[in-house]
Model the fold of this input.
Amino acid sequence: MNILNLTVLFSSGAFFFYGINCLISQKMKDEFHRFGLAKQRILTGCLQLLGALGLLFGYFLLTPLIFISSIGLTILMFAGFAVRLKIKDSFIEVLPSLLFAFLNLYISIAYYHIIFS
Done:
C-alpha cells in the first residue's frame, strides 16, 4: 500500500467521522450556529458522508469516484476554511479545514493523472 492509497483511506475515515458527528453531535450543532450556518449542517454532514463513501467505493470498485469525491471534498473544505476565516477563528481552529482541503486536492490531482494519463 502506497502513500496515495493511505491518504485516500485516511480521508475517507476522517469524513465518515466528521459527517456522522455533523449529523448527531450537539457540539457540531452548536458550531454550525456559531458559524451562522445552522440550516446547512445536515447538508454538510450528508456531503461529507457522500464524499467518504465515494472515496471508499472508488478505492475498491470504481477509481473515477475517488477523483470526483476528492474534488467535492476539496471544495467543501475550502468553503469551511473561508467560513472560519470570516468568523475570525484562531489559526488552530482554521488549520484542519485547510489541511483537509489540500489533502483532498492532492488526491484529486494524483487521480486525475492516473485516470487521464
The CA atoms of residues 82 and 94 lie 9 Å apart. The chain has one domain: 3-116. The chain has five helices and no strands. The mean pLDDT is 98.
